[in-house]
Amino acid sequence: MPDPDLHGNAPDTCPLAVLLIDVINDLEFPGGDRLLPHALAAADAMAALKQRARDEGVSVIYVNDNFGRWRSDFQHLVRHCLGDVRGRPIVERLRPGPEDYFVLKPKHSGFFSTSLDILLDYIEAKSLVLAGLTGDNCVLFTASDAYIRDFRLAVPCDCVASIDPADNEQALRHMRRVLKADIGPSDKVEFRV
Q: In terms of C-beta density within 10 A (0-12 exposed, 13-18 middle, 19 or more buried), how is residue 115 classed?
């Protein structure tokens, strides 16, 4: 049984968690301008998904690239992305709240060299809902690593975006076929496990 008080940082148990991958993002990279319209549509769906998760008491974990800054300061990253940057409208829609968790990652997968395994083990998560940017890269790598750790997966098709929509669709099909992920729309995600 988990420690009933991890200094107020994590619930005792939560068998399902929502991972928001790389949504705190300035989009200031080659192709960011092409990603923006797809990311905006996905951000609206992710915001609704996040609100449903919060209403159901499901943990929401921001799994975000550190963009090579190595400061391990998530709030600094949020403030930067709320400045005069291309990704600001996405961050405004998905701004983290005080009840949300975060894990900074140095590479594509949310599991690589991070504390994500420890947090998910502590809350006894068995199922994950993955959403974020980009479907054909960081979401795919995180989903792959989650699958080999025996998590049940959902990757709502309306909550992921990539620079090229065809690449996004191909990644979703791959996650459904190989990783056994449910890729139905976010309004069909069941928060009861």
A: middle
